[in-house]
Amino acid sequence: MKEISEQNRELFEVILSLKTVEECAAFFDDLLTYNELASMSQRLKAAKLLLEGKTYEQITAETSISSATLSRVSKCVRFGNGYKSVIPKDAPLN
Length: 94
Hints:
Blueprint: H1 6-17, H2 21-31, H3 34-51, H4 56-63, H5 67-79, H6 82-86
């Protein structure tokens, strides 16, 4: 794992301090634009679908994610540790 900058560490600690979905929604509502939040949610959904074994075509149809972004998410799902640590392979989609 690469070193975490002090600025990013502070952000991560604030996120970890949030206790409810409502607190989290309010924080991210202030922090991100609508499109930034939608993009993050879209990437998470794409990661879940990849872990479920869906094809790129199925995922782009369901999420409208770009092929370039899906490729990035796919690389992270295959070789990274972040998505796998929080998304069980059989995670239900909400």
